[in-house]
Amino acid sequence: MAVAPTFDLNEFSNVEDPMIYSNPLVESVFEFGSVIKPLVMAGALDMGVVTPETKYTDNGFVILNKKTINNFDKKGRGIATMQTVLDQSLNTGMVFVESQMGHNKFREYMKSYGLGEKTGIDFPNETSGLIRNLDSKQDVDYATAAFGQGIAITPIEAARAFSSIANGGSLIVPHLVKQIRYEDGTIETIAPTPSKIGLIKSEASETITRMLVNVFDKSYGEGKYKFEHYSVATKTGTAQVASDDGKGYYTDRHMHSFFGYFPAYNPRFLVFMYLKNPKGVNYAATTLIPPFVEVTKFLINYYNIPPDR
Nearest 5°: phi and psi at 68? Predict the structure, then answer.
């Protein structure tokens, strides 16, 4: 885990804002946007209500409860598949997916990923996500939640949820502690343990992984980031930031996020990154893919991970 800006405890008296001492990875919640889409798509695949080839008509916008939901570029694609929905991160496509699932099953899957719960990580002051919109009476709240707006979760909640679609459907209690050694010589080994299993079937896990590998291989920079000998499953997110007064969203502030796991079909690592309100850059594909690629290359080389393709 890493956070910037950081601090020097030897000079703690020079810090003007004591909030810098908090750990936002477990103590803060954010609306992460489109990185949530694979969780929803995985649930729909698991239900059997969509396949990667399922088509819908994308007009570029959807109106629900008199509110308009647009794609990020406000453009329609005409007839589009579910693979295209992830490749081009189409909000209208996720509204379609949620409608195929139905509100109750959508809510059930999202909560099964541990959203709205503490993960149990061995860090102090952990909080849990805000997912009240999953119990809303308005269709628009479910639609926006399907592309990651209107629900706010901690980064560690997000990472655990993404891991569950990577590992075949198990929700793991994350740990940073490996052992506790007591003064009497007793050693307690701390191992990652699943709190839930079978969230999605292995077939759904494999299908969403294949779709996310296609996203990385073909959608970013016209394929220039593709690893020739390694499959990497990824998704970006660019979300609006809620106003401090609780009334709508800022028009000039965004949250960038990105996750990826690899080797995709037998993953050793999941990397999740986010940037709060980056300046002068519109999309996470620009800000976060290059550092993700560098981290991925380092981990592959450092741990001598064998190629998988």
Answer: -95, 130
Domain-embedded: residue 243:
no
- Report yes or no on 65 lying in a domain: yes
Residue 271 lies in a domain: no
CA 231/CA 265 separation, integer angstroms: 8
Q: What's the total number of domains in the chain?
A: 1
Find the domain containing 124 and state its range: 23-225
Sorting pLDDT into bands at 50, 70 and 90, what band is 19? confident
Q: What is the pLDDT of residues 177-207, one digit of tens each?
A: 999 999 999 999 998 888 899 999 999 999 9
Assess whether pLDDT exceeds 90 at residue 246. Answer: no
In degrees rounded to 5, what are phi and psi of residue 204?
-70, -40
What is the model's pTM? 0.94
Measured over the CA atoms of residue 60, residue 204, residue 223 and residue 302, the dihedral's sign is positive
